Amino acid sequence: MAGSVQNQQQQQLLGIIEEEEEKLQKQKEETEGNNNNNNNTRKQVGSDMAPTAGNSIHRSGSRPQLDVSKAEIQGNVEEKYPTILLPNQSDDLSHLALDIGGSLIKLVYFSRHEDQSADDKRKRSVKERLGLSNGNRRSFPILGGRLHFVKFETRKINECLDFIYSKQLHCGGLESHYSDGVTDQNGIIKATGGGAYKYADLFKERLGVSLDKEDEMNCLVAGANFLLKAIRHEAFTHMEGHKEFVQIDPNDLFPYLLVNIGSGVSMIKVDGDGKFERVSGTNVGGGTYWGLGRLLTKCKSFDELLELSQKGDNRTMDMLVGDIYGGLDYSKIGLSASTIASSFGKTISEKKELEEYRPEDISLSLLRMISYNIGQIAYLNALRFRLKRIFFGGFFIRGHAYTMDTISFAVHFWSNGEAQAMFLRHEGFLGALGAFMSYEKHGLDDLMVHQLVERFPMGAPYTGGKIHGPPLGDLNEKISWMEKFLQKGTEITAPVPMTPLAGTTGLGGFEVPLSKGNTLRSDASALNVGVLHLVPTLEVFPLLADPKLYDPNTIDLSDHSELEYWLTILSEHLPDLVDKAVASEGGTDDAKRRGDAFARAFSAHLARLMEEPSAYGKLGLANLLEMREECLREFQFADAYRSIKQRENEASLAVLPDLLVELDSMDEESRLLTLIEGVLAANIFDWGSRACVDLYHKGTIIEIYRMSRNKMRRPWRVDDFDEFKERMKMPCHKRALLFVDNSGADIVLGMLPLARELLRRGTEVVLVANSLPALNDVTAMELPDIVAEAAKHCDILRRAAEAGGLLVDAMINTSDSSKENSSSVPLMVVENGCGSPCIDLRQVSSELAAAAKDADLIILEGMGRALHTNLNALFKQDALKLAMVKNQRLAEKLVKGNIYDCICKYEPAS
Ligand SMILES: Nc1ncnc2c1ncn2[C@@H]1O[C@H](COP(=O)(O)OP(=O)(O)O)[C@@H](O)[C@H]1O
Ligand SMILES: CC(C)(COP(=O)(O)O)[C@@H](O)C(=O)NCCC(=O)O
Ligand SMILES: [Mn+2]
């Protein structure tokens, strides 16, 4: 073997990393005067064997294929909602509810997704072993699916009918998929709002369906209660340009005042589920703003009117206290000069005609007048019934910063801070959701927070509008939308401007909004809510010490510089990712087109988040990293790193036997250390880290692994190894959950040998891997093959894998075919329920939850699962967190260290 060449390369690599480290160290010393005395002992572990071909990797199809044959865009592509025909696509949409208001029609519809993950051998054996059954699965629609939110203007009801027809939403029903004794409800759609009466005949005529009318107030309350109980961070406050999400305790929700600002305004005192009273209302509402605004400004759309207000100055319209008092405050009763004394009052003393006023100023003055008035009446009603919390909903709000600030100001001011105004992310959909909930068999009654996953609103920019023809899937639609956005430049990225207010200046007074010139995104509200995925099999990880206190994210993205840093990292990584993704799909023209669309969609989301970090709800680094994966899947890139993973697995499996021989020659204590070092060193194979990807150009997988291993020096940045070692001298753990990370060396030369050690000591091992691909992470689908391949070289692994039911096919190839497998504790594989490099332990698969019940050791591995998330998580059982930090800033922030530092954090059961 070309040992000397390899050694040379190895030395070079070592040199490169050390240079980098020296530079960093120098910088650090310069700034901090840091004197770090590292222990320089090095070990030579590893072998010089060349890689051979080996195992096969499953393709992991995450969703059904879309039939885009004969697809065409109809009409003008420049049109806002181009018509797209997918004549051959059949869809799985079903279940629809409507709220037909005076201004807008709101649709909530459910699309079922098949349980796509095939019931493979691994799953079956896991089910058997962990005693899982399908018994707790209920009928429709709790099988899993998505809730979508769409709206149309009531005056354009035909667009809505077309939309329903094109997606066949009116036909989807219970009977078509299930036959569990439900009466035939096809042909009936739940609907609320006045339009359920007014347009009943039209629906019958055009779609052949009857509208089953539900009481509007009932629906509003049911919708609000559902959202506040089931959606994490549904509610938020908005004061002086600052948005903050509030977590409402579902057990401490009532009583509250619900103020729904639609065309008109309803104020409802809510005391419980189905327990409410409409206590007040006002006819001065959203319809008033839009109606008067249209007359006074000649605006053609609500959006245009709202957008004008961004650039307005209401002082040209409103009579201020200062106008009356010669520029002075009326301080005796607490009125500052800038307080509005009389909305539109200034226009009486001037001889100007309507045309001489700026439409911008008119719009703003009107918006303030109406918002403030509603805020004030809401406060009075809260006072009347001693309610502390007021939730505002309805489409008038439109997630518009200035509207929310005005309302909040009124409530805060008049109540002396006693009452709090809160807003809802699904503001306009309360009634429609309530109508949806009123289906007898919707199955959502006892749905819990952990079963709902809100995805970024990938589809939002393309929902609504005219879509004709048979039901359509949306891939092509999305792509053409993305292509259009390129032509239109900034449309999708233009944020709803956040208006940093100049501060309030006394009673009822605001300065003018500062925001200048930004356009309001055409459908801002749709972009603010994502699609709700219902995943009934998700559970809270049972070993969390206190799920209520658990927060997966360790990095605070509300710090703007932090957010900017991570968004830039993701954005810089994009070209390389697109290359990989396109190559993974064969580099075809279709793949290129999808890759391009993915890049645009993802950049658009990043740009949006840069402008308004909380646009999609509370944002953590884990959400950002998951968004990237979701976005890839959205454009049907099932596994961008497929071939890289395969290559690295093969190379690593080839050197595994030598590593095992080397390990077996050691005594127990040094073996344990070598194993942990091995895990940390092998975690360097991370295709999500810029620094690491740069490294890969400089050597082969095995060279880099060896180099990384040679560099392992204790003490590590966080080094609890000695405590862990002490624990390992005691009676062995019963069952260990190993949350594994990357493919290749990471799993094969790092985690598998550690698993083998635990098995050897009599601990059952459960390898916990991703359900769906994310970067180069190994998936639960891929693991059995890798284990089988490794088991060819190792009796311990083979027996354990057999005992765990992992080696059904692979048996034939084993070198030693003796079948005395009963002596071993089992090795199993379970999926974690997610498809992200990070893990939120509030939402894990039922498999994992079941496996966790008997576990007394948790090992979390990798930067995503053990550093970005969960570094601070507390568990009921012993926990070991192992990772190499592959990002300088993260190292500084989290552990005051440097890139390539290692973390070995051991925490005994708390
Ligand atoms: N795209 C839009 N078109 C018309 N009005 C809108 C739009 N977006 C927000 N609005 C505002 O929302 C109000 C309607 O709110 P909504 O909650 O849907 O009530 P309703 O059920 O009475 O239609 C309108 O009167 C207007 O102020
Ligand atoms: C996505 C990751 C968390 C994956 O790391 P892993 O869990 O595989 O150790 C990591 O690659 C990451 O944070 N990357 C972005 C930082 C960077 O490029 O430096
Ligand atoms: Mn990873």
Summary?
The protein is an alpha/beta fold. Helices cover 39% and strands 14% of the residues.
**Order of the strands making up the biggest sheet:** 7-6-3-4-5-18-17
CATH architecture of the largest domain: 3-Layer(aba) Sandwich
**Euclidean distance between termini CA atoms:** 51 Å
What's the helix count?
Answer: 29
CA radius of gyration:
30 Å
Q: How many domains make up the 3D coordinates?
A: 3
What compounds sit in this structure?
A: adenosine-5'-diphosphate, the ligand CC(C)(COP(=O)(O)O)[C@@H](O)C(=O)NCCC(=O)O, manganese (II) ion
User: Which residue ranges are poorly predicted, with pLDDT under 50 across at least 5 consecutive positions?
Assistant: 32-93, 134-143, 173-185, 459-473, 486-528, 810-821
Got a strand count? 25
Write down the CATH topology of the largest domain.
Answer: Rossmann fold
Query: What shape does the CA trace take?
Result: elongated
On the 0-100 scale, what is the average pLDDT? Answer: 80
How much β-strand is present in the residues?
A: 5-15%
* CATH C-level of the largest domain: Alpha Beta
| CATH homology superfamily of the largest domain | Uncharacterised protein PF01937, DUF89, domain 3
Largest sheet: 7 strands, mixed
